[in-house]
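Input for the complex:
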Amino acid sequence: MIDVARIDHWAATPPRRGPFHRASVFSKSLFVGLVVTAAVMSKNPSALAAGYALLLIAAAASRLPWFTVALFSLYPAVFALLYGISLRGGAGMYALLLVKAVTPAFAMVMFIVSTPYPKIFSLMSTFLPEIIASGLFMTYRTLFILLDMMDSFAAAIRLRGGFSPGSLAKNSANISKGLAMLLIRAVERATRLYAVMAVRGYNGSMAEARIGRLSRHDWLPLGAGAAVLMLVLLWK
Amino acid sequence: MTHMHIPDGILPVWLWVAGFILMAIVLGLSLLQLRNMDMRRKIPLLGAVAAAMLVAMSLEIFVIGYHVNLSVAAGILLGPALGFVAAFITNVMLALMGHGGITVIGLNTLLLASEAVLGHTVFFLLKKRLPVFWRAATATVLAQFVTTLLLIGIVAVSRASPALFGHEEEHTGAIRDSVRMFAAVVLSLGSIGWVIEAAITGSVIKFISQVKPDLLGHVLHRDTSAEK
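Predicted:
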């Protein structure tokens, strides 16, 4: 799984804030939408590859960790290639599948490394039902708690000799007990967190549910997204 | 096996749009069923279970490319309606982390949620007939089998549009063959994954039944607003 804590750090407290960090959440979600549309419509791998290169330049110019973003974006490439192999196509089709997979993934990772999750949930709260918005927020909070507990659990089980290479049954049993314990503790902690939030005035709705306005800082995400889409539409 | 890592722009548009529409309908019905729930109790449980699913998905068994889902455990703990919401939240979070495309959220939610709903149904149908571990394990294997068939169905249907990739010449015989190959791979390798998932889900549910049985007793599912 992608390192959620590292992404959160880049999004919330970047070493240097670039144009992508200053842009509104709304413009960045439009940017992702434009790139996804480009990927859906694309039938020419060269055009989408040029779009990917353009996004790389935009990420580097915005002081985003472009190399790590590129590495993260390669994850779906494996599955796209497997899908391509089962289709038994030629090199052109593999290339198209590859760029169709990595280009929207790159845009999505650019979005999340420059936008704190609470701001994304705030935007989503404007159109999602309350239970889903609250559920997303609680999942996000609990995920960090669980990841911390999982690290401690993994260290503890190694120190006590709980992992035996080659013994699937023993390892599965230990992992299952660990997961069950994590789940129970996560429910307890999440219940406590929810109670604290309720005491502090949380009445079932997100404190900040808003779309936000477009500003002069939005030129880069909107321009980059539009450029990728234009490339795909014009370069057939 | 029942979570597609298919990125954006690969499946035919009609297919993922249909997935979104169907998901929106079922999600709407689930929310309608949950309208009287006690938010203070359900939301933390929903968040904890969805987060546990995400953590479990990070445990990949590299040899067969399978990762644990805990979707059946989610269904057993949350019930069908809230289980569906948890599946949706998990898929949205995965898409936000760059895992899986945005356009396949609908289809992925339907697959993951069908595991949760089927798992919940089988687990409670087998009540008093089997010990907790075997009930959960049986529910997991059955749910995984059915949803793997659904996955094969989706892939088979998606192959109906080879023109999408500029391969108009590909004839239906080749499409059928590749679907057979895909089905053979997911059913053979997947069955190993089902057994592992069943063992883990069975142990998780057994442990919860011993340590915190009220989570299984669905105490949290009751509307307590009248008790206040």
